[in-house]
UniProtKB/TrEMBL annotation:
Catalytic reaction equation(s): a long-chain fatty acyl-CoA + 2 NADPH + 2 H(+) = a long-chain primary fatty alcohol + 2 NADP(+) + CoA
Protein role: Catalyzes the reduction of fatty acyl-CoA to fatty alcohols.
Species of provenance: Exophiala mesophila
The protein, known as: Fatty acyl-CoA reductase
Family: Belongs to the fatty acyl-CoA reductase family.
Length: 434
């Protein structure tokens, strides 16, 4: 079949934090003339509260798109589907029609909940990947498919983490079956694989299966590290996600988080969401003469989208910048820091006296005074701190050194970017939401 004249991009995960910025960048660059005219279709599932049509309408109102020319969404359409289901949950006619039209695919839909039960994480991160690959195999005009993974598919170890599949203790197919079995000991499986949570494990399995079953598909896997606020686009500091660093920074900035298991000497690899979007789009190769020599030689190409140690952020620098910024811009109460270290008696003492005890007193007071709004707020803060305590220590204890072929712009400064993160957390996550 002859190739279509205009590229047609299918984007999954377009309602998420990274997905919005990828969509915004595709449209912005098309408006600037950097890209040829192209169509964009979003695959959107129904949520518990909204159907896909309502979710698309809500998406277009996001501030992420506020800098685009009016009418930008006229060239965007959506299809209702469910990536966990065979056939991507699409109507058969819609599936067949979409396969004929699509030339490029970006798959960034996933669950970033680190604590999902293993079977649920497998459905969200592995089944979705396999179903979109099957869709891609049925696209006669397909030119490129980009899967978004995570740089943490490789458990921590000394030395550089290379842009290659991470070792697994058993074949990926066996691990997938184990992940879906209700007889599997989840903790034992995570330990045997060296992974801290179900998210990184299922992403690693998904990469192996994608590489195995991609056949001749022109596939690139992009692995971001810790994604945070926008550096430049859509505008500095834009952020709408409390996942990963956003939740930690919001609790700290609001003056609720004072203790963390970790090491002040750990260096975090934090990468702006718009740089990740740039790396994803670069590997999509929308421009006909835009090629990767490595991608030409290999069907499966893996790239890290990371800051790297050169632009890494030491934990003590993050704490210092946060204390200075939110000390000047108090949201709820002035921030202060008590302890960062291993789970010693000192850790538990500071955690109890500075977090658990005062929040428990506040909850009791609002229970007695029947202030339901404040009760809910205190519960949310306590749940947020507990989530940080469960998810973040692994990354606070280990410094990763990622090898990468993708460049960070020469004018990028992590010191300046930490201020941008604080501004974004303050403006977009905290103001009006405490």
């Amino acid at each position: 079949m002859a190739q279509l004249d205009k590229p047609h991009v299918l984007l999954t995960g377009g309602t998420g934090f990274l997905g919005k910025v990828i969509l915004q960048e595709l449209v912005r660059r098309r408006q600037l003339g950097d890209f040829p005219p192209h169509k964009i279709t979003l695959l959107i599932r129904d949520s518990k509260k909204l159907d896909s049509k309502s979710r698309f309408a809500k998406l277009t109102q996001s501030r992420c798109f506020s800098k685009l020319e009016s009418g930008w969404s006229d060239s965007i359409d959506f299809i209702n589907g469910e990536l966990k289901s065979k056939g991507c949950g699409l109507n058969p006619d819609v599936y067949a029609e979409s396969c004929q039209k699509v030339t490029h695919i970006i798959h960034c839909a996933a669950s970033v909940d680190f604590n999902l039960p293993l079977a649920d994480a497998a459905a969200s991160n592995i089944d979705t990947c396999l179903n979109i690959l099957e869709f891609a195999e049925n696209c006669p005009n397909l030119q490129k498919i980009v899967l978004v993974s995570t740089a943490y598919v490789t458990p921590h170890r000394p030395g550089k983490v290379q842009e290659q599949l991470a070792a697994l203790p058993a074949p990926a197919e066996e691990l997938l079956l184990a992940a879906k079995s209700d007889r599997t000991d989840e903790k034992a499986l995570l330990k045997s694989c060296g992974h801290p949570n179900t998210y990184t494990l299922t992403k690693s399995i998904a990469e192996h299966l994608a590489a195995r079953y991609s056949g001749n598909l022109p596939l690139t896997i992009v692995r971001p590290s810790i994604i945070s606020a926008a550096w430049q686009y859509p505008f500095p500091g834009w952020l709408d996600s409390r996942g990963a660093l956003g939740g930690y920074a919001a609790l700290f900035g609001a003056g609720f988080l004072h203790v963390m298991e970790g090491s002040v000497d750990t260096t975090f690899d934090i990468v702006p969401v718009d740089i990740v979007a740039d790396h994803v789009i670069e590997n999509l190769c929308l421009v006909r003469d835009q090629k990767s020599s490595k991608a030409e030689q290999e069907n499966v190409h893996i790239v890290h989208s990371v800051a790297g140690l050169r632009h890494g952020s030491p934990a003590k620098s993050m704490i210092s910048v946060g204390l200075e910024y939110f000390g000047r811009n108090v949201v709820f109460q002035p921030p202060y820091w008590k302890y960062m270290g291993v789970r010693s008696p000192k850790y538990y003492w500071y955690r109890f006296t500075s977090q658990t005890f005062p929040l428990s007193l506040a909850r009791l007071y609002y229970d007695l005074t029947r202030n339901e709004r404040k009760q809910k707020q205190v519960r949310m803060v306590m749940q947020g701190i507990e989530k940080v305590n469960q998810c973040f220590p692994y990354f606070c204890l280990h410094t990763y050194d990622f090898a990468t072929t993708q460049r960070i712009p020469d004018n990028f400064s992590m010191e300046a970017y930490l201020d941008v993160i604080c501004i974004g957390v303050h403006k977009h996550l905290l103001l009006g939401n405490v």
